[in-house]
Amino acid sequence: CDLTTGKRGERCPDAFVLSRRDGGLRARVCYSACMLTLYGNANSRAFRCLWMLEELGLEYQHIPTDYLRGAKEPAYLRLNPNGRIPCLVDGEFVLFESLAINLYLARRAQSPLWPTAVHDEARMLQWTLWATNELDPLLGVLSRQLRLSEAERSANRVEVAAAAAALAAPLRVLDTQLTSSPYLLGAEFSLAAACRAQRSWRR
Q1: Counting beta carbons within 10 angstroms of the beta carbon of residue 53, is it exposed (0 to 12), middle (13 to 18) or buried (19 or more)?
Q2: Are 167 and 139 in contact, with CB atoms under 8 Å apart?
């Protein structure tokens, strides 16, 4: 890592190594780096954080981290003891949970995606938490099928059918909200839309 001290060419003594599945070197990483670092894969909830970083135009480094192996390595567990992705490192500050990361990034960047009016802020938090409680568990059941073998998919047909059926109710709530305005909070794209739309896009 040559970004740790802000001087290119200097190695940071706190840097550690994450390995690929085949045992090869993936990256030398430092969690006291001078820029934002996001760990996680784009085909996970880390996608919404990658989207937010791009939306905000922030400089960052992305360390692809597999949730089955890379996230279980001792070095990574020092950052996120849950052994899950994503995880964000901002200097000495470490944060996990994708929605917490997005909320932090928006505030950190003083972005207009974070509403200024107290009622809009409350509604933004409402829809963000709503997506976590009402959509994510059901979409998670469906998206996991993409990583399973045909035999495993067949064994899970009842669970998948139940999740697909249950998903109809929250999607009706979402459709109703969007009949009166193009975005969840009105005419403007907001943090609530960014956090919710990622999961819907993955579906």
Answers
A1: buried
A2: yes
Return the structure tokens found at 1: 């890592």
**Which tens digit of pLDDT belongs to each residue from 70-89?**
899 999 999 999 999 999 99
Dihedral angle sign, alpha carbons of residues 133, 191, 164, 65? negative
Q: Residue 187: what are its φ and ψ, rounded to 5°?
A: -85, -15
Report CA Rg, the chain: 19
77, 83, 85, 88 alpha-carbon torsion, rounded to 10°:
-30
60-63 sheet: strands from edge to edge = 60-63, 36-39, 87-90, 93-96
pTM over 0.70? The answer is: yes
Residue 111: both structure tokens together: 């972005």
Cα distance between residue 142 and residue 139, in whole Å: 5
Q: Mind giving me the DSSP string for the chain?
A: --SSSSSTTPPPTT-EEEE-TTS-EEEEE-TT-SSEEEES-TTSTHHHHHHHHHHHT--EEEE---TTTGGGSHHHHTT-TT--S-EEEETTEEEESHHHHHHHHHHHTT-TTS-SSHHHHHHHHHHHHHIIIIIHHHHHHHHHGGGS-HHHHHHTHHHHHHHHHHHHHHHHHHHHHHTSSSBTTBSS--HHHHHHHHHHHH-
Question: Greater confidence, 106 or 3?
Answer: 106
The neighbouring-strand residues paired with 29 are 16
